[in-house]
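Same chain as my last thread, 585 residues:
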Amino acid sequence: MTSPESSEALPSGEPAADWPLRSWGLALLGGLAGLAVHWIVRPDRASGNLDAMQLRMAMATFIGIGTLIFGFLVERTRIHWSVASAAIGAAVVALTIYWNGPFGAARGEEPWRIVCAVLAVVIAAPLFQAWRDARTAAESADEGRRFAIPYPEAHGHAWTNVVLWCAAWVFVGVSWAMVLLLGQLFRLIGINLLNDLIEKNWAILLLTGAALGAGIGLLRDRDGILRLLQRVVTTILSVLAPVLAIGLLVFLAAIPFTGLAPLWDATRSTSPILLGCVIGALSLANAVIGDETAHEPRSPVLRGSVAALSVAMLPLGVIAAISTGLRIQQYGLTPDRLWAVVFTGIACAYGLAYLVVLLRWRVAAAPHLRMANLRLAGGLCLLALVLSTPLINFGALSAQDQVARLNSGRTSPDKFDWRALRFDFGRAGEAATRKLAAGGSTPDIRAAAKKALDAQSRWAIDPVSIEQDNPVIDPKRLLVLPRGTQLPKALQEHLLEYNACSLGDACTVLYQPGSKEAVIVTGTQSNLWKQEGGRWSTSPARPLITGKEAHDRIEAALKAGRVEVREVTRRQVFVDGQPLGDALD
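reply #2:
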């Protein structure tokens, strides 16, 4: 790595030389990749062998991801480097897919590993691009610094790759719009060939792959436009930095007066919200400082916002860590909570690094923040790569902890989340369930474990919440008609859901004692809830007509004239004489 401001590669704003063959080659490669993916995973090759299906899915992933990475990396020089890097990145994601499958089965593993594999590839791509460009420039200048990764190049490639990804999919959307328009145009004169063709799965993948490859190639030949779009995006984001900085500082300043208790009472999503704020602060701070000294803002407001965002990240990460730790202390380990530990650890690492740089360098912190970004990105890439492998099994750790809590009596069998152990903890959870069914410490544990083991799906096991009790709706905003009627406890637990009383203002529930129906009315909606099998849920909407067989039947009836208008009786909520919401039946 270089010093904070050194750059041995070509200037980041220098446009790449035109290479028309790249666009045509990537379009052809994308189309062939689409066909290959269809051939591997086409429905007629499906079988009951989940392992074979997962192997085909991994092969399709290798082809698709490898082609995509190659499109982003390929340059006229050192093409074999791009091929090798694309193959390595595709192998990482494909092997992660294979290790974590078969998905949909009881022994599927952790989907977050796939996110880590993709994250590792996304971070590694701009680092490789910057290193390759710097290596080429160093060899051209006969310099010996062959392992330097200039920050301006890495930063530029990272943002450009994001813009390129979004713009390429816009190109795919425009291409599909044109094809659909042409299909309808030819249909007007009775030629349905194109319209019928684009309904076939292989044609969809062929056109999408070709359009995506062509879009990437065309946009990469216009590197100057991408750099301009990148600069526009970062400029717009930098304007938002002071707004977020003020909001975060006010939030942190209010914590000593409100305490942390309201954070736990208001929502169960405390950690995700706080981590989202950390990600936003990190993104906006980097949008402000740019990729080199010349791009740093002169406005004291923007410079101050970088300092404020840097100060706020660590406290937010620490609060998120406290929230996650409390949840683990109360209810034990689960894979999701262990992933939350990882994410909060990453947030705290970035927050600590930014705070240390800011305290040490103060107004001259920007160059050193950029250098910290480069080092943190390398560390995050390696961490994500390790977490994408089976070396660390959060399902096994969680199963061991939950079983220990069950055997020790800290969690009773009727409060134990058998559904999670059986279906959410992967192979380790299934093995632990089988072991408890055979040799649990009490008859109740063995019976409950056997019932969970015999379940064919997660929905066959009664849900048991191991979280805190559901929050109770404020009685001041609830009115039950007829007045004085007591709602069933099972229905009360659903009142705060979005399709019930939600979190709004007044809410009225129409319920007759002993009835299996209840109508819940707010100022904006009305919904019918029904009790089936002891559970309350919203009445399902009228099903849509789907499937080719149903569509053909309707089409035949329309052509035969079997269409009529019938008078129907409906139930609908009226408030002050005016209808509210859709018909209940």
